[in-house]
Design a protein that fits this description.
The protein is an alpha+beta fold. It contains two helices and eight strands; from the N terminus they run αββαββββββ. The chain has one domain: Sortase, Chain: A (Beta Barrel), CATH 2.40.260.
Length: 234
């Protein structure tokens, strides 16, 4: 009997230790990994931008597509840096091409089927709510009118949130359509072409049964040579 009790106790201790180690990994170590990876992505982008010639900023509005000579985004590679003042003055994350698990461990991910940054259509971006740095942990704090600012090294793009956070299902692919429209008929989307931004993350906080969405429109652009946009300093 004592052997059974001791064996059971040791088994419980082992299981408990494994659970603690798993929690530490999820809550702490993935964040350390993500912080290092995202900082490395931003450093790489900044070095590439420093070595590249500057291009003129596009005029805001729905009529001007990106230059035809622009190279396509490379899967898994950094394409921009995002700032969201509502989420903290030091909040910044790299945006990489693609949304697979490997990409989202390094930063935010651009839905490859959506448009380029600043172009007509919908520039859609996904990010973890929890683990791997918790980039969108405070996603529910976002409000209409909030600025979402991105740069590709030549231009600052300031988007303004119009709608959300909006709770929907993972199958609601209309939220990342060129003209974003939600699945629910009584939920407002957009009526026509424009330069849009969609941000998506998991809901609930520690689950993935649903998604939280916000939509924004391109409000302003300016070349990086003009300094930081006012939205980052207000």
């Amino acid at each position: 009997m004592r052997l059974v009790v001791r064996t059971f106790s040791e088994l419980c201790l082992t299981v408990g230790t494994l659970i603690v180690l798993f929690v530490v990994y999820v809550l702490y170590w993935t964040g350390v990994q993500a912080e290092s990876a995202s900082a490395g992505q931003i450093d790489t982008l900044q070095r590439e931008w420093a070595d590249a010639p500057l291009a003129p900023a596009p005029a805001p509005g729905p009529s001007s597509p990106p230059a035809p000579t622009t190279r396509p985004y490379a899967p898994g590679k950094g394409i921009a840096v995002m700032y969201v003042p509502r989420l903290g003055k030091d909040w910044k994350w790299p945006v990489l091409e693609g949304t697979d698990s490997g990409v989202l461990k390094k930063g935010l991910g651009h839905y490859a089927a959506t448009t380029r940054l600043g172009a007509t259509g919908n520039f859609a971006v996904a990010g973890h709510r929890r683990t791997y740095g918790d980039p969108f942990k405070d996603f529910p704090r976002l409000r209409p009118g909030d600025a979402v600012v991105l740069t590709d090294g030549t231009t600052w793009f300031t988007y303004r949130i119009d709608r959300g956070p909006y709770r929907t299902l993972p199958t609601d692919v209309g939220v990342v359509a060129p003209v974003p429209k939600p699945l629910k008929k009584n939920a407002a989307g957009y009526d026509g072409p424009g330069r849009y931004l969609t941000l998506t993350t998991c809901e609930p906080e520690w689950g993935s049964s649903h998604r939280l969405i916000v939509w924004a429109h391109l409000d302003a652009t300016q070349p990086v040579t003009d300094g930081r946009p006012q939205a980052l300093d207000s």
